[in-house]
Amino acid sequence: MIRWLKFNAVGGMGIAVQLAALALLKSGLHVGYLPATAAAVELALLHNFIWHERWTWRDRGAGGRAGRLLRFHLANGLLSIAVNLALMRALVGRMHWPYLAANVAAIAAGSVINFFLGDLLVFRRARGRDATPACETGSAKPAFLRG
User: CA-CA distance, 38 to 57, in Å (whole number)?
Assistant: First the structure.
């Protein structure tokens, strides 16, 4: 539960980064809404990776930082960009939603899947041990008793 709350706190900051970048690119620099969305998602991905690395999953270190960044982009990144671009095309391009509202809907659509991809693939536990401290799981029981 604690990790889920941390994930959502980081996600909230990432949403602010993504929406600000999208607004700047689209309205300020007049970049098309699809390329602006892709660039804003990438900026938010990098932001979120740093925070997840240092806070959400700080207790996990399997594979080294470069490996985690690659896995993060292959899992969360590809999913986020695909969902964001598909929904932005549908909501903005076809249904004529305001682009920021459409982007919030697109972010929400992928968030739960991104948590599980992050937890299971990107910031996975080191093999052969339970690296999650009791304070992260919300349990005071040792790992071998939590079952």
Answer: 25
Place of tokens 């939590």: 146
Predicted confidence at residue 118, as pLDDT, reads 86
Give pLDDT, residue 105.
94
| Cβ atoms within 10 Å of 14's Cβ, excluding its own | 24
> How many domains does the chain fold into?
1
Residue 89: CA atoms inside 13 Å, Cβ hemisphere, count? Answer: 8
Residue 118 buriedness (CB in 10 A; 0-12 / 13-18 / 19+):
buried
DSSP SS3 for 94: helix
In this structure, are residues 105 and 88 in contact, taking their beta carbons and an 8 Å threshold? no
What's the pLDDT score for residue 6? 94
The CA distance from 130 to 135, in Å, is 13
Residue type, 73: H
Which of the 8 DSSP states describes residue 31? Answer: -
- Domain span holding position 140: 2-146
Cα→Cα distances 146→47, 80, 128, Å: 33, 33, 16
- Residues in the chain predicted with pLDDT less than 50, given as ranges, are 130-137, 139-147
